[in-house]
Structure formats: C-alpha cells, structure tokens
C-alpha cells in the first residue's frame, strides 16, 4: 500500500521523536557509565561524555571490594526475592477469595480495599503503626507492609474474572476444593499476569530506598539503594573517609590517589542499576503479555 507524502512525513517525524526520546533516556546512563570507568581525577577535569578517556576499574574495585556494600546488596537481594514471593502469594490468595461472588461480605471487603487506594493516614501514623507492631529497625519492615497491594489485587481479580466460569464450575462438580481449583486452574492460566505483577513488585523492592532511610536505624539492615542515597548526599571524599557511617566506610583502606567522590558515586549507581536492567529483558515478554491479557479481559 502506497503512502501519501503526508503519511511519510508523519512517520518520519514519529521516528525522529522516538529516536530523540531513546537518546534522552540512554545518554544519562552512558554518561554515568563513562564516568565510573574513568580515572576519577581525570574525569573531574571535564570532557568525559560517552566513553572513558582514561579507562580504569578502580572505582568498581572500591565499590565491590567493600564489605559494607556487599552486605547491603545481600539485604536488597533477600528483600527482593522474599518480598516478591510474599507479595504475589498474598495478592493471588486475596484475589482468588474475592473472586467468589457468593462470598459473604464480599462487596464490603472490596469497598474497604478500594478505600485504601484512595486515602491513607499519612507518614507519621504509618510510622507509629510500624513501631507498635515492632517492625521498625527489622528486616520485616521491608516485607510485611508491602505484602498486599490493592492495585495488584484488583488487576489480578479482573484477570480471574476473565477465566471462563465453566472451567471452575466443572471442576467443582467433579469434587475439586477451592485449593485444588487454585492450583489446577487459576495458577496455570495466570502465569503471564503473575509474571507481570512479579516484575512490578520486584522492581519496587529493588529500587526502594525510603523504608531503609526512615524505618531502619541499624546500618547493617539498610539496602543498597538506601546506601546509595546516603552516598549521593555526601559532599566530598574526605567526608566519605572520616566518619563511622556506612557511607563513609565505602572507600576506607583503598588507594584514593586517582579516585573522587563523583567517580565512586557513579560506580555505585551502575552497580545498583545493572542487575535489574539485566533481568528485565528476560521478563519483558511476560510483562507485555500479562498487561495485554489483563487489559483485554478487563
């Protein structure tokens, strides 16, 4: 089919816009990567934009060779894995239970869940609640408060409602109990949606720095993103070296002759961002499929 001149111009403009958008997203990442791979004192002179002028791995050696950040990584990995599994389990069970239209007080429960999406008590009441539950300054403050997501539950509920009722009714007529229906019908058919929600939940846990900064005072429990936030707030390398804080312990014992605070910051950003960027492409097809299925069935 031949395109008119106007269609060709429109397509060219759209392509140009998408290319510019892609460049605007990629350039900051490439810039930080170049700084992290460049000698810090040389990068401080300026002129490093897309590739390192004096290549070095010393910045990454300082970051990865430090026990503090390795421990923060362990906290982040544990939080992401446990938090994602718990979140998916709670979301699936809640959505499956509320999918039964004959469930007592179903509408009332759905209303209460909807209210939590629209209103909240604020940060101070939330902190007081966590304190009264003895969750502050514990690892479980990362897991339990975020175990249930009203938005994810409604998305999952819509997906379950899109599953033909004849499948569930025929299974129940054959004597299948609700757990059997869940594991034999709902879960196998919900894998794309579970993958999409799992990706959302996992990225949220990996990127969250807020809980570690405000609900945890034990520096041995902070995740890598909170560590990064503390590092980015440091002013110079002498501050990084001069305190007992985890941030200031980052470069202790290393040769800092060619290292600057900016180069260490950029290396830490890369180390914290690359793992989730490597995982995302492998889950993208499930993410897109899950979102499309959810939107069509919704």
Automatic annotation (TrEMBL):
The chain crosses the membrane at residues 12-34, 72-97, 109-128, 140-160, 181-206, 262-283. SUPFAM superfamilies: MetI-like. Residues 73-283 form the ABC transmembrane type-1 domain. It holds the Pfam family BPD_transp_1. Keywords: Cell membrane, Membrane, Transmembrane, Transmembrane helix, Transport. The keyword Transmembrane helix applies. Gene3D superfamilies: MetI-like. It is a multi-pass membrane protein. It is found in: Cell membrane. CDD domains: TM_PBP2. The keyword ATP-binding does not apply. Belongs to the binding-protein-dependent transport system permease family. This is Carbohydrate ABC transporter permease. It comes from Cohnella cellulosilytica.
